[in-house]
């Protein structure tokens, strides 16, 4: 073992080849080697003994709405990345909308980077946005380092981020394919939504009926068709409808470059248990029935869905009025994704290797973050240290994101994140956070 600056040792290190006792040598912020647990450590090198706590790769959350600048009362870079660090997330990629300006021009990207730079506690990258009117901005944004382009097929909820009509989608898919970019899409079909009953009032069942599975299914089919026509790499965001899984599986069988993610709330919560008026559970697409949730788990296990990311999308508490028609849609879970998913995963017989694949390796691969996503020589020394058998009860006031609203309030979850490490530095330990040590990332 030559020249490490730190060795981190655990009886349970989650590596791409499985979980095993190991000593992880760190040099220059990277993993120099993953060695046997008993490997000799050169004198003078500090050893962090984790005992039986599990060493996971730091989570990579590619779906976070930071909303900064412009809607900073909803969330900001300092608060969001503190929540990330406390939750074992070492990299996040910020969505292009809900901030003002949105990340739909190079100038907008510069504004975001300037605001984020001094504030971030974890590494942060940026998605760009594809609008009906900004096609000429896509290539320059790609060259400026965004990881891909988000688009909506139905209204986004904010007027500065209009959705793509059918012709726009074709043009954007062609344009993005032309420079080898990635298109990530909120997949709900606006015509199906228009034909559904209006959401109104406190009943969750009414809200669910207003966002039918058919809207997602039709949109996913359109995206698969576009990927087939132009060869565009397309990623389906926050899939909720299990009825779209066959279409996604078929696309993969045909070798199309289509991937998809789902979210902790779709995997852990069910429509049946949402209390009326509880709009902290409102998001689009919606949390569906228990049987739908089971099918999403099966699709993750089968690789039809690859990523689990938060879609952390907060707002001020006043916007969560107890009326599903009027409340802002979005669930705040950046700090809770790992324990929420782990609690349900362990109940279903999955291991932390699976969780690491869904929440770290696959999102890193989606964004092309080759230095992230695994405990493996050459990657950044980004770790989440988890006590998987300990439980805690979610107290919204103890969360670090800006507004103490979350659908997980009062739930008892397995998995306490003991510490979080970014490039070999401990940035969070037992609830205490360090300074803003994150970096801004660009597409490689
Ligand atoms: Zn989102």
TrEMBL record:
Residues 54-426 form the Amidohydrolase-related domain. Pfam families: Amidohydro_1. Keywords: Hydrolase, Metal-binding, Zinc. Pathway: Nitrogen metabolism; (S)-allantoin degradation; allantoate from (S)-allantoin: step 1/1. InterPro entries: Allantoinase (IPR017593), Amidohydro-rel (IPR006680), DHOase/Allantoinase_Hydrolase (IPR050138), Metal-dep_hydrolase_composite (IPR011059), Metal_Hydrolase (IPR032466). Its cofactor is Zn(2+). NCBIfam families: allantoinase. Homotetramer. This is allantoinase. It comes from Streptomyces luteireticuli.
